[in-house]
Amino acid sequence: GDECVERAFGDEWIQIRECVTDGDEYFAKQKDKVSSLAPPLRYTPWIVIERKHSKASEVHLTRAVCDSFESKWKPWACYAPPPALPKPTVEIHYEPLNTESQSFIVAQLNHLKTHVDEIITLDIVPFGRTVKNSDNTFQCPNDEECHTFKHHACVITLFMESKPVETLNFLVCVFGSDMTNVPKVTENCANEYFTDPWVDIDTCAKSKGDQILQTYAERVENLNPKLSHIPWILVNGEHDLEAEDNLIQEICEIFYATDKPSQCIPELITVSVNYQNMETSVANFVANQLKPYHPYFEELAALDFVPFGLTQRDGTGFKCPQNEVQCNANKVHACVFHNFWDKLDHSNAMDLDESRYRTLGFLVCVFAKNSANPIADAEQCIEQEIGDYWADLINPCATGPDGITLYEELAKKTDVLNPKISKVPWVTIDNTYKIEAETNFVHSICDSYPLVKPPVCSSIGKILVNIGLYYSSDETTRNWVINELKPLYAESTPTRAAPRLQTILSSLFIPWGQTIYNEADAENPFTCPKENECLANRIHACAIDQYLDKPRGVLHITEFIICFYSEQTWSTNPAEAGNVCANKVWVLEAWPQIVSCATINTPDNINTYLKMKQKTDLAKPTKLPWITINNVQNSNAETKLLETVCDNYSGLRPDNCPTIGPTAEPTLPTGVTGGPTDLPTTPPTADTPLPTLPPTQPETSPPTSPPTSPPTPPNPTDPSPTPTTDGALTIAMS
């Protein structure tokens, strides 16, 4: 620092040093600048152009600045041709008989195949965790003689460069078919997308298959970090874990914002929230669904707030469910959104971010008060969140003809809703009513996008819940792992519609328990309450030490421990259970290292287990297993782990989490049917479990004609659903 400042500023260095040693005043000014940002700073670098946060500047600052000049007269430097951005290189390592590879190919590459030449340079390697034997033969996962691996290798070698679209069509065809007869499926798909190629492919596999696999083996061996799971994806030469869940999103982020190909630009979907003042249900919605995320909504969707709710026309005027004050407060909100959200009265478009952010702040402020005097609440919140606009702008608007005109416009928006509004809040996404949005608003919005979503959908979902398990390998721990942890991960089946439970968890396993360290006994340094307990603990500790820091290390350690306690020999022969599970999770090279660490008492191996003692001593558990959630002991997690994890998660909630909000189990209003749900993008396999169905109700015949009049809407202030005559909800499925 000294050297660079002296080189840049010369004699002025003395002044700078004086400023550094006594510069609190200057630093406070910087703090004030950061504190005044709206939306608030969420990461660095945070670049603002003309008071508007500029995400594009992070990729190409010069062009973002030039784009910010509203007229055609720009600095000369802005007219220089932009530098060409190279297409990203994507390298995909997969296995032809692997279910995760199947899910990835069908869900991700299928979307890219017609654009692959335009936007990426694609390299596909069908090798994965194949092991090269000492006699230069290969041992392929689930394919003893590597026939399928060689067929895939030959298809890619023969056709990927000259026929990339057909090659991807072949892969999608194979992985989207019934995999019970793999050779036949491979042949049929090859003949479908290439001209009589099967003889050439089969001949290549028999004559050159080993040679091609040898080339792949060298490439996989040189990967850094080492390949540890499938699919394994590199973008521009760097391993990219995020690409495994959304390759298209990762590819699109490499392109500059204004230069993205069309398939990388999500068009913001339209979201409408119809509500009214003085309602507890709306206050809960704002507190639970809007407040935690309100800095993000400008980037998330095209939001429209309609403060009309269940207002009814009354002659030439309007009548609100509670009283006239409720209607007047709704008009105040209409005027606020008209002036500060819709931008009809603002000439400077660069204020858009800040204005909408502050308007949402106003909404959060009002419903945090939610008093019997909503107009006084609104006046205070306008002053607090937006500025001094009440007397000269908002109050004259709400009490004058402008308020009536705006309210009439809101009435027209509400009249066209289908189905008709019957409670508040009432949320529509792309003009479709979404009851689930009332209790999981952000998720529902992100879920409504296809594969390419706004970047904020990814960033909101990266918050983690940390589970800590301090334990020893005894029956109590085994029961907790099988009854609580295993079902939680079993619920985490991949889905492109929402984050998996796996992605929000970070598990910490500390196997020590009541172990006694016998420092003077070199042959038997550890003693545990039961036979084999120390060995099982040390196997876990060695696996954790060797693999926790690897890619997907937390997930793989969790899978290993669940597998371990699922084996019948876990207590009688821990080495056998460890061997089976290490080979399942990490394939062949893992177990010899783990068992050596767990059974040979070298100083390093002993220290590996002693690390668990140090962590246990810091936690000071009073019982075993000792379970922590976000580093705090949590008794609820002993019997209700799923609910506890979901309750402690503040990000984008996965589908697997129980519904939250003012109503624990939301139900459809009378006369309203649910819209279609997304079908899974991954084809079912032999391992795909069937959903568990509830007991069936007696079958009834559907009505032959629609009702002549709409059903009576339920009382919006009554949270209970309207039951059928037998007390059960009727569900129609087609």
What descriptors fit this protein?
734 residues; alpha+beta; Glutaredoxin; 4 domains; 4-stranded mixed β-sheet; 27 helices; 43% helix; globular
Secondary-structure-based class equals alpha+beta
Q: How many angstroms does the end-to-end distance come to?
A: 69 Å
* CATH fold-level label of the largest domain: Glutaredoxin
Count of domain modules: 4
Low-pLDDT sequence parts: 344-351, 491-499, 660-726
Mean pLDDT: 81
Per CATH, the superfamily of the largest domain is Glutaredoxin
Rg from Cα: 31 Å
Polypeptide structure, described:
- The protein is α+β, with helices and mostly antiparallel strands and 734 residues long.
- The protein has four domains: 2-79, no CATH class; 89-257, 3-Layer(aba) Sandwich (Glutaredoxin); 270-458, Glutaredoxin (3-Layer(aba) Sandwich), CATH 3.40.30.10; 469-647, Glutaredoxin, CATH 3.40.30.
- The chain has 27 helices and 20 strands.
- The strands form seven sheets. It has a four-stranded mixed beta sheet.
- The protein is globular, with a radius of gyration of 31 Å.
- The protein starts with a helix and ends in an 87-residue tail after the last helix.
- Residues 344-351, 491-499 and 660-726 have low confidence and may be disordered.
Short description:
It holds the Pfam family GILT. This protein is an alpha+beta fold. Helix content is 43%, strand content 10%.
How does the SSE layout of this entry go?
Layout: H1 2-9, H2 13-21, H3 24-35, E1 48-49, E2 52-53, H4 61-67, E3 89-94, H5 99-112, H6 116-119, E4 121-126, E5 131-132, E6 138-139, H7 147-159, H8 164-175, H9 182-193, H10 198-221, E7 232-235, E8 238-239, H11 247-254, E9 270-274, H12 280-290, H13 297-300, E10 302-306, E11 312-314, E12 317-319, H14 324-340, H15 352-369, H16 374-385, H17 390-399, H18 401-415, E13 426-429, E14 432-433, H19 441-447, H20 455-460, E15 465-471, H21 475-490, E16 505-511, E17 516-517, E18 526-527, H22 533-547, H23 553-566, H24 574-586, H25 590-599, H26 603-619, E19 626-629, E20 632-633, H27 641-647
Parallel strand pairs: 3-4, 9-10, 15-16
Antiparallel strand pairs: 1-2, 3-7, 5-6, 7-8, 9-13, 11-12, 13-14, 15-19, 17-18, 19-20
Helix pairs in contact: 5-8, 7-8, 7-9, 7-10, 8-9, 12-15, 14-15, 14-16, 14-17, 14-18, 15-16, 17-18, 21-23, 22-23, 22-24, 22-25, 22-26, 23-24, 25-26
